[in-house]
Specification:
Length: about 210
């Protein structure tokens, strides 16, 4: 099964020439007479290491072993999650940050709240100017959060004792938000994480089947 990685590179879909380029770029030793399948395995193994050492582009480094359950901190069961001041200001104005679309018919005004900056049009809080998602529409999980979820998921594949359940993943994301490493509004609901796991699993099962068919 191809290993997920920040660059979304899937070795099994590369030509032999591109495989060689990727291996050389990463300074991975190989024999020119090796089969394509062997080259794919070498690149997939390196990508697995890249995932472990990845640095997410959201202003905080991830230490080696960050996804291991033994290194995580969890809140006590039943502890309530406080709504941050930033979220309250958005809720009070019914501002849907996910859309963040500017209507040029209004005068733009930049507003800054405790280090978070976003453009608001004059009259942005009026209900007539809001765009709402359809009932049941899901909030998209950001690329940074997907990388974290992939790390938790892969940690369980590498070592069964480090397997995360859905609630574990959610608790860890909340902890990162409380430490200021990610935005609280980016933390998906438990149900969204469950849906992501289902989609993620199906997607890579299909890729595994496609790889065998080659």
């Amino acid at each position: 099964m191809p290993v997920p990685n920040p660059s979304r590179l899937i070795p099994s879909r590369l030509t032999r020439e591109n495989l060689v380029k990727e291996l050389e770029k990463r300074k991975i030793q190989f024999d020119n007479h090796e089969s394509k399948e062997r080259l794919i395995n070498r690149l997939e193994n390196q990508l697995a290491e890249d995932v472990k050492k990845a640095r997410i582009r959201i202003k905080f480094p991830l230490n080696l072993g960050w996804a291991l359950k033994v290194n995580q901190k969890f809140k006590k069961k039943g502890a309530r999650k406080r709504i941050s001041p930033e979220i309250r200001i958005l809720l009070e104005g019914y501002f849907l940050a996910a859309y963040n679309k500017i209507n040029n018919s209004f005068k733009k005004k930049d507003h800054t709240f405790e280090g978070i900056k976003f453009s608001l049009n004059l009259g942005w809080a009026l209900k007539v100017n809001q765009k709402f998602r359809k009932k049941g529409a899901r909030k998209r999980i950001s690329p940074e959060i997907r990388i974290l979820l992939e790390g938790y998921f892969l940690a369980g594949n590498i070592n069964k004792s480090d397997r995360y359940i859905v609630q574990d993943m959610h608790n860890e994301l909340v902890q990162l938000a409380q430490e200021g490493k990610i935005k609280l509004e980016e933390v998906p609901k438990v149900s969204s994480i469950q849906n992501w796991i289902g989609h993620y699993t199906r997607e890579h099962k299909q890729e595994a089947v496609a790889k065998k068919a080659i």
